[in-house]
Design goal:
This protein is mainly alpha-helical. It has seven helices and no strands.
Length: 143
């Protein structure tokens, strides 16, 4: 049997975790906050794993990470996600120009973009990029 991980929380840390559990941006982050809160409440790692639908090793991993790094350790670190195919920084102007030239035929705009950018992507990727772009514009209030 391995060592038992003990987590004792001050009122301030408990409030921070409860806020993360209630208002965290991602579901995974909220679950990790809940893991720490349950462990600090005296529950065993296996009980937490069964309750949340994880394996015990995953619970212990996040508990160790919390002890080492604090609440920031419960976030997914940068670079762990799949890189974007179309970048707002590099490809924005090219995409805008191609879509303006071929407003009614996004498939033609996609083929043109694949040639000019030198990347292969699906039509759905282009549609998602445009949708996110318009959402960003609407949020910022600009045109």
């Amino acid at each position: 049997m391995g060592r038992v991980i003990k987590i004792e929380l001050s009122d301030e840390l408990r409030k921070e975790l409860e806020n993360g559990y209630r208002n965290g941006k991602s579901h995974a982050f909220r679950q990790r906050c809940q893991m720490v809160l349950l462990k600090s409440g005296g529950h065993k790692a296996q009980e937490i794993a069964d309750f949340l639908g994880f394996c015990q090793q995953a619970v212990n991993f996040w508990l160790h990470r919390y002890k080492a790094e604090g609440i920031g350790g419960l976030l997914v670190k940068a670079g762990r996600r799949r890189p974007k195919i179309l970048s707002e920084i590099e490809d924005l102007e090219t995409v805008k120009e191609a879509v303006q030239r071929h407003r009614q035929r996004i498939s033609i705009a996609k083929a043109e973009l694949e040639k000019s950018i030198g990347k292969k992507f699906s039509q759905k990727t282009l549609e998602r990029f445009l949708k996110n772009l318009t959402a960003d514009i609407n949020e910022s209030g600009g045109v």
